Amino acid sequence: MDGVDGSIGDGVLVLGATNRPSTLDSALIRPGRFDKVIYVPNPDKEGRQMILKAQCQKWEKNGSDIKIDTDKLSGEIFTGMMTGAEIVGACREAAMLAIREMLLEGDGKDKCAPTVQQHHLVQTLGAVNPLLSDPRVLSEYTSFEEKYAQ
Fold first, then answer.
1. CB 66 within 8 A of CB 115
2. What is the pTM of this model?
3. How big is the CA angle at 119 (ends 85 and 133), to the nearest 5 degrees?
């Protein structure tokens, strides 16, 4: 970050993100480096539903006519403590699960695309162990924010 004087006129904005703030080198977080620390919490129910809908739209474009109940899946039981990345990862795994099922069926029909169904998502979302469900990690995040946020 040498050479960036921090003025608005230089047209440079340096933004950093991490999911493990305790592992940052102290030189990065000393005064004058990053002037503001912002904790971005997990998405709320509406945000989780939007993430799920975006993933499901990809499947619908591939010819899937199965509707996924994103309202139900975005609730606390299925995705409550999950980050957006964890939800997207579970959706990708659900697609892989549908592919595996299609290949194992081997019914001789030429299928262009597997059909991701509700039960695929229920299975993969249930297998996620959310990072922030660990009280130590959540404590790490909140203590970092308290120490460095202005």
1. yes
2. 0.75
3. 40
Distance CA 128, CA 42 (A): 15
The dotted CATH code for 45-132 is: 1.10.8.60
Instruction: Tally the residues of the chain.
Output: 150
Model confidence pLDDT, tens digit, residues 21-79: 778 888 887 777 777 777 788 899 999 999 999 998 888 766 666 788 999 999 999 99
| 63 Cα distance to chain centroid | 25
CA 73/CA 52 separation, integer angstroms? 8
Q: Rounded CA gap, 53 and 93, in Å?
A: 16
Handedness of CA 118, 119, 124, 128 (dihedral sign): positive
Do 132 and 26 form a contact (C-beta atoms < 8 A)?
no
Residues of the chain with CATH 1.10.8.60: 45-132
Residue with tokens 């960036």: 4
Distance CA 132, CA 137 (A): 6
